[in-house]
Inverse folding.
């Protein structure tokens, strides 16, 4: 009886998580289309009005970050739920609020022409030179606020659950193991460590974001209330950088959970692993200043800190993860399938994607490169080839453990197609950056156009590959629960 | 069990005494951050007594604490509008409303706080944290004078008051999430 | 199920009350500060300019009713003010420049009233008006000697003046547009002199045609 109830719960749990991934995946695919349209417009192939280009830019940025965060939160929730007791009704609230937020944002951007980019940098929402009105700005800002509220609820629940089981967030990060009070064998699992990190940084990010969003709303409603723009920019990037950065730390949990299962080996949590995650937690919170290296009014020490710690930020976790992944796969006789293949690809994408970021975080380079397409080159590689690939990896993993849907040759072709297309798009951005092509420009000089057109063509293949991934996942959704899942197996075993 | 009733009523009477009232209202930070919260404390004590006396009524109208919490948020946000403090000084009907609505907040809080359970409490707490930070920023940073009845320097003082509250709240959160209370209990 | 509905209704009820509270409290989401609320209320009351006696920079003394039949655009200032008054008067000068010369003095009078009569004697006002190219006739600067009259005027027009303890005052600022019978027509944002000038000219011309 108990097992039966457990299975019922499990079925609906998997359904909720799968819903977040489906929504996230579909939005990501649609946003890719807007990306292609922008590249085509920049490449001079199609004619897009300038105002509309910036609407595309806004929705592409907002949609990609929002959808990836939504799906990644689903991944994190799925695995964390196996170690601590999470509330499913809160996850439903989270989903509902995110959907409401997305709808408001879409209406704001398309019906009321808000085009202030996903960074909504103060005071742009208010002074648009009549490109959009108060309603558009308010819809967008309130949409983001509601979306943020959804995420806040989710992290409150994960934080509460982790504290309940492990005592404190510090212990969730394994500080008692680092200090030697506890043995390495008793360290919290990797999924818990990563979730704790994300809970800490994203709660901070969302609170900063909420303050700056409400401030923008006040300014839109009553423009005579003005604020210090530099402080606003700090808060905006404290929110935006951390929130976008945390996506990969949520999604990477799938790599931690999947590879040991596939290789039948143990991926032990050791002190180095825990120290790396603690370092990344601290650095992620303070390095957003590398977005402000060009703001001369910023205190110099903050910028230097931004540069120095940016080097150090992603690296600890990346190194322990990539090294760990290599070690666990090495000579393991792993059977490659879509899940493991994508997981491995994501490790590659994450590693190479960090390189251009580190280049850009250098103050001297940043002054020249930060407003070129070099930066989109970095984050398309990092997100598109790293974080988002982890999400797809999870989709195939879940389909495998929870249904009888088989992977076909088309799926494998799609994997290669995706990898090559995403590499092409990233390289195209990097080349454009090296050519000093400015980012966020609707119109390009002829000399800048070729890479953009190349990127758009690659984008078409990317959309095709992504669609194949999503179709596979939707087929799983229809045949869910035929096999039970790994958790169910654990329970009955 | 009548003790909270007496405490609440006594505090309420003290706050109503005209010289005390006008003194508190003459300094902006005392008005906003001492008088208003004290009025809520009055409501909290009265609420303890009333809820104890008539639990069924509160069970019927405020079972899960959410309706009460919504009103609490609305009324407290209302009193954070730059306009309302001003109006309370110049218009008697606002002053009367202040002395009714804020004890009501305390009363509802006494009933709702436990009912919204830990998730609701954390949510409310974190929202007030960013709201207070924003209020601090607004009063410190705004180039225009927000209130007609107070000097700009008083506004700045209030802004720092809000920043101080925010900082204290952050410290509280940090110790809450990083100190393992289970060990202390053992 | 019934219970859930019951709770849901209560939640909606409290949301509606909250909405009403904010709707009334901000005059339909129009006025978030006391200043905007003050303007909002004054526009509904349309107070009459009380009868006061002015003493201007040329040491002329006359009642306000002398301006009957003319529009008056006025501000409240004190000359020792170092923050908002110079800005206020600069912007009044901008409005002044934008009014067609044939209307000045005939149809409209500019008036800056000091609420600091002790220090702002005619000589001080004379010196102060030179800074803004005010001629003392079509744009006059004046004080009100009678304390009672001054207080009545400030009350009636919602001007709040608080001594800051070191010789200055904190006060609210705006352009007050007064009609031909001394009735308050409009309160204009002093930070938008172009708009204010536009509005004033429009009203005068409509009146001349009508």
């Amino acid at each position: 009886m108990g097992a039966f109830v457990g299975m019922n719960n499990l079925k609906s749990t998997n359904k909720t998580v799968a819903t977040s991934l489906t929504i996230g995946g579909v939005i990501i695919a649609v946003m890719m289309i807007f990306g292609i349209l922008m590249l085509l417009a920049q490449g001079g192939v199609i004619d897009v009005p300038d105002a509309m280009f910036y609407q595309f830019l806004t929705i592409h940025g907002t949609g990609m970050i929002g959808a990836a965060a939504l799906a990644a939160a689903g991944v994190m929730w799925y695995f964390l739920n196996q170690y601590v007791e999470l509330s499913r009704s809160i996850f439903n609230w989270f989903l509902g609020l995110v959907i409401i937020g997305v709808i408001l944002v879409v209406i704001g951007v398309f019906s009321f022409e808000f085009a202030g980019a996903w960074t909504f940098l103060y005071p742009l929402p208010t002074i648009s030179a009549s490109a959009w009105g108060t309603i558009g700005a308010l819809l967008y800002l309130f949409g983001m606020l509601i979306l943020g509220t959804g995420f806040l609820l989710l992290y409150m629940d994960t934080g509460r659950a982790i504290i309940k089981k492990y005592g404190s967030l510090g212990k969730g990060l394994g500080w008692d193991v680092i200090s030697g009070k506890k043995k390495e064998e008793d360290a919290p699992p990797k999924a818990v460590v990563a979730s704790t990190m994300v809970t800490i940084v994203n709660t901070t990010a969302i609170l900063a974001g909420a303050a700056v969003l409400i401030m923008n709303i006040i300014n839109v409603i009553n423009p005579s209330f003005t604020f210090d723009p530099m402080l606003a920019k700090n808060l905006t990037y404290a929110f935006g950088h951390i929130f976008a950065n945390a996506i990969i730390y949520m999604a990477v949990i799938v790599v931690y959970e999947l590879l040991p299962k596939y290789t039948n080996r143990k991926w032990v949590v050791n002190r180095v692993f825990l120290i790396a995650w603690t370092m990344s937690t601290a650095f992620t919170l303070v390095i957003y200043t590398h977005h402000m290296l060009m703001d001369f009014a910023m205190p110099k020490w903050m910028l230097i800190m931004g540069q120095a710690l940016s080097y150090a930020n992603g690296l600890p976790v990346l190194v322990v993860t990539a090294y760990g992944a290599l070690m666990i796969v090495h000579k393991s006789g792993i059977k490659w399938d879509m899940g493991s293949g994508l997981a491995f690809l994501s490790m590659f994408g994450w590693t190479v994607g960090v390189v251009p970021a580190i280049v850009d975080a250098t103050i001297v380079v940043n002054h020249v490169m930060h407003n070129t397409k070099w930066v989109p080159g970095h984050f398309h590689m990092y997100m598109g080839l790293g974080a988002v690939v982890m999400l797809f990896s999870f989709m195939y993993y879940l389909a495998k453990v929870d249904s009888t849907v088989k992977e076909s040759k088309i799926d494998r072709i799609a994997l290669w197609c995706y990898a090559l297309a995403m590499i092409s798009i990233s390289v195209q951005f990097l080349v454009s950056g090296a050519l000093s092509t400015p980012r966020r420009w609707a119109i390009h000089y002829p000399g800048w156009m070729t890479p953009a057109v190349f990127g758009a063509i690659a984008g078409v293949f990317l959309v095709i590959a992504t669609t194949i991934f999503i179709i596979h996942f939707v087929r799983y959704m229809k045949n869910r629960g035929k096999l039970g899942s790994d958790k169910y197996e654990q329970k009955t075993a | 069990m009548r003790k909270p009733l007496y405490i609440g009523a006594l505090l309420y009477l003290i706050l109503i005494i005209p010289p005390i009232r006008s003194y508190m209202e003459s300094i902006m930070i005392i008005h906003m951050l001492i008088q208003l919260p004290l009025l809520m404390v009055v409501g909290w004590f009265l609420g303890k007594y009333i809820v104890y006396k008539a639990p069924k009524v509160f069970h019927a109208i405020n079972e899960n604490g959410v309706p009460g919490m919504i009103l609490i948020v609305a009324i407290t946000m209302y009193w954070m509008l730059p306009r309302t403090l001003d109006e309370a000084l110049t218009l008697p009907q606002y002053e009367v409303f202040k002395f009714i609505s804020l004890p009501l907040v305390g009363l509802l809080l006494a009933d709702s706080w436990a009912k919204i359970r830990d998730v609701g409490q954390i949510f409310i707490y974190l929202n007030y944290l960013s709201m207070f930070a924003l209020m601090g920023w607004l009063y410190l940073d705004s180039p225009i004078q927000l209130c007609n009845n107070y000097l700009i320097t008083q506004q700045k003082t209030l802004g720092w008051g809000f920043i101080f509250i925010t900082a204290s709240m952050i410290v509280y959160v940090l110790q809450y999430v990083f100190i393992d209370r289970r060990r202390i209990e053992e | 199920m019934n219970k859930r509905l019951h709770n849901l209704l209560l939640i909606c009820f409290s949301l509606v009350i909250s909405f009403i509270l904010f709707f009334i409290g901000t005059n339909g989401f129009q006025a978030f500060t006391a200043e905007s609320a003050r303007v909002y209320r004054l526009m509904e009351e349309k107070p009459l300019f009380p009868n006061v006696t002015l003493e201007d920079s040329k040491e002329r003394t006359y009642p306000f009713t002398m301006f009957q039949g003319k529009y008056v655009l006025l501000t409240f200032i004190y000359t020792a003010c170092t923050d908002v008054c110079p800005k206020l008067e600069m912007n009044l000068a901008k409005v002044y420049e934008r009014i067609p010369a044939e209307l000045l003095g005939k149809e409209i009078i500019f008036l800056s009233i000091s609420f600091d009569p002790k220090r702002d004697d005619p000589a001080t006002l004379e010196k102060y008006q030179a800074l803004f190219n005010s001629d003392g006739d079509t744009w006059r600067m004046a004080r009100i000697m009678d304390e009672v009259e001054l207080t009545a005027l400030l009350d009636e027009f919602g001007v709040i003046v608080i001594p800051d303890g070191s010789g200055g005052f904190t006060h609210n600022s705006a352009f007050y547009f007064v009609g031909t019978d001394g009735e308050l027509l409009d309160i204009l944002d002093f930070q938008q002199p172009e708009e204010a000038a536009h509005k004033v000219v429009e009203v005068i011309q409509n009146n001349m045609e009508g």
User: Anything to note?
Assistant: Residues 1-7 of chain A have pLDDT under 50 and may be disordered. The two ends of chain A are 15 Å apart (CA to CA). Chain A has one domain: 13-487.
